[in-house]
Specification:
Length: about 300
Amino acid sequence: MNNQQLEMINRIRENMVGTGPALQPSSSVPVQRQEMIIPTSVGDTRVLMYTPESNTDGSLPVFINMHGGGFIMGNAGMDDPWCKLIAYRSNCVVINIDYRLAPEHRFPTAVYECYDVATWIHEHPEAFGIKAAIMAIGGHSAGGNLAAAVCLLNQQRGNELPFVLQILDYPPLDLVTDPAEKPSFDEVLPTEVSKMFNAMYLESPDVGKNPLASPIFAEFLEGLPEALIITAGKDSLAAEARDYAEKLQRQGVKVQHKQFEGVPHGFTHQGDLAIAEEAWHLMSDKLKEAFASAEQG
C-alpha cells in the first residue's frame, strides 16, 4: 500500500462515507461501560464491555458485537449507545470488538481476531462476569459478515464456542459478485465505492470465494447457531442476506428473517429513530429469548 492509497483511506475514514447524524436511543439505560484489552493471535485487541447495573443474578450470558464500516472504517464506539440498550434489555454482558481494519489488515485478519476474542472470553468467564456456556454473536453491515464468518469458523473447529444465536444485521455476504450486478437503489453507495471497499479487504478477487469472506458460498451449514437476519428494503445487499437465510433453513438451522421496508442500508444508525429502535428491540428481544432457552437446557 503506497502513501497515496493511505492518504485516500484516511480521507474516507475522516469523512465516513455514506453516514449522517448518528442515532441515539430515545431513553438512557443504567449500564456500566469499561474498556478492556484482550490478547489475540494478531496482537492486543481493544474491546468495550457493557454490564447492566441492575444485575443481581451473578454471571450473565454474553453477546459479542462487531461494528460496520465496509471493513475499512468505523470503530466500536459507533455502536456504543446501542450496546448499552442490548445489555439492559437482554440482561446480558455485551462485548463490543474494536477489530483491525483493512487495507492495513486484510482478510482474514479480522475474522480470526474476532474468533480469538470470543475464545478468550469463553476461557476467562470470571474476567467478564459471564456464563461461559451461553454466548451469542452479531454485527452490523461488515460486522454482520464477520459474525457469520466466526460462526462458520467455529463450525469448522467443532463448535468449541457455545453460540446460541447469530445476529446478522444487513450483512454483505457475497464479496464475489460485482456490486454493479446487485439490485440498485438511489440510497446505496456508488458501485465504484463498494468495489473499492471489497478490493481493500481482499488480497485478490479470488479470495472472495472463501466462505469466511463470503458466507453465502459456504456449502455445509448444519449445526450453525440459530440466526436472526435483518435486511433493509432499499439495500443492494438484502437479496444475498435473504438467500443466506433460505440456505440456512434448508439445512435445518432455525432462522428468523425480518426485512424493514422503505429504509436503506445502515438504517439502525442513521435515519428514522422509531424504525431503528424497532430493529434494536428485535435484536435484544431475540437475544433474551435465546438466552432463556439455553438456560432451560
